[in-house]
Design goal:
There is one protein chain. By secondary structure, the chain is an alpha/beta fold. It is 46% helix and 13% strand. It is built from eleven helices and eight strands. The longest helix has 17 residues. The chain binds (6S)-5,6,7,8-tetrahydrofolate. The site of (6S)-5,6,7,8-tetrahydrofolate (THG) has 18 residues, from strand 4 and strand 5.
């Protein structure tokens, strides 16, 4: 599995001011540290960037590509900033992201083609957030068709079903799992990607990695290709690299209905099992789910 490092983002307390103040040091240090952590892509997230977004993105791409060779995912909702980033970047970018709103499609699909980029197809429709797996399928088919019409092949499209916090709506957490199990049939050859940390938004910081790691393993059962995730969660990176097959296997067995004897498990195994039960909806989410 591929990990796209999420840490270079404008919401961060150190990176936000550095991006706005064009302060090279913190931005390049973060790019170096994420690269050293072993990620596969680096998400460069400047947000909506309404004010001079094009200058900010061009500057950020320039300073980041001086210190790392890993491919960049350009993350902004501002199409002018996106184009400035594509112009500046020497590599093959991942455009993050193209949703189904007509004005975004019209601007971004030709850009993906012109700059020979790859794209994240975000399943956000004209009416907003899809409500279940079926609505996600309809949006995915529509988006892939429109990208194909523009000459963008399935292999260059990474579908993002939009992950939402477990503390908000457990049905949406399951809808993404169900959608992932159908994606191969409805859009053969397309890749998949999720914003993994979204699932633990609103959860106490020290508990977030449990939800993130377990949900990634659950999605891997259905062939998840990549996740935008915390580059500094070393256990998560190990899982993505296939270095923790026993834990992956345990999570998948519990998803299939196996009920292991909790007393026979290590603490680590027990934590994964409890977390699967929260994410399948079998146990109710509360901040103390690991203790019960
Ligand atoms: N899909 C796609 N792109 C995305 C998302 C997605 N880009 C943005 C986001 N979602 C993924 N990136 C992040 C980045 C940081 C966090 C969550 C998702 C995060 N940060 C901590 C916080 O806010 O508490 C810490 C911030 C910090 O670094 O200080 O949770 O879904 N295509």
């Amino acid at each position: 599995m591929k990990i796209v490092g999420e840490n270079l983002n404008i919401m961060s307390n150190t990176i936000g001011p550095a991006l706005r103040g064009r302060d090279t040091g913190p931005v390049q240090n973060m790019a170096r540290d994420e690269t050293a952590a072993g990620i596969d892509y680096l998400d460069l997230n400047i947000g909506p960037a309404r004010k001079a977004g094009d200058e900010m993105m061009a500057w950020a791409v320039d300073v980041v590509q001086k210190v790392t060779d890993i491919p960049l995912s350009l993350d902004t909702t501002n199409p002018i900033a996106m184009e400035a980033g594509l112009k500046t970047y020497r590599g093959r970018a991942l455009v993050n992201s193209v949703s189904l709103q007509p004005e975004r499609l019209e601007k971004l699909l030709p850009m993906v083609k012109e700059y020979n980029a790859e794209m994240i197809g975000l399943l956000w429709g004209v009416e907003g957030m899809p409500r279940d797996a079926n609505e996600r399928c309809l949006l995915a088919v529509d988006l892939v068709y429109k990208a194909n019409e523009m000459g963008i092949p399935n292999e260059d499209i990474w579908i993002d079903p939009i992950v939402t916090p477990v503390s908000v709506e457990i049905n949406q957490v399951q809808a993404c799992l169900e959608f992932m199990s159908m994606l191969g049939d409805i859009a053969p050859g397309c890749k998949s990607i999720i914003g993994l940390s979204n699932v633990s938004n609103g959860t106490p910081t020290h508990l977030r990695p449990y939800l993130n790691r377990t949900y990634m393993i659950m999605l891997m059962k259905y062939g998840l290709y990549s996740a935008i995730a915390d580059a500094f969660d070393s256990e998560l990176i190990s899982i993505a690299r296939g270095e923790m097959p026993e834990i992956v296997n345990l999570v998948h067995r519990v998803m299939d209905g196996e009920r292991p004897d909790m007393a026979s498990l290590s603490q680590q195994e027990a934590e994964y099992v409890k977390t699967v039960r929260v994410l399948t909806g079998e146990s109710l989410y509360s901040h103390s789910w690991l203790e019960v």
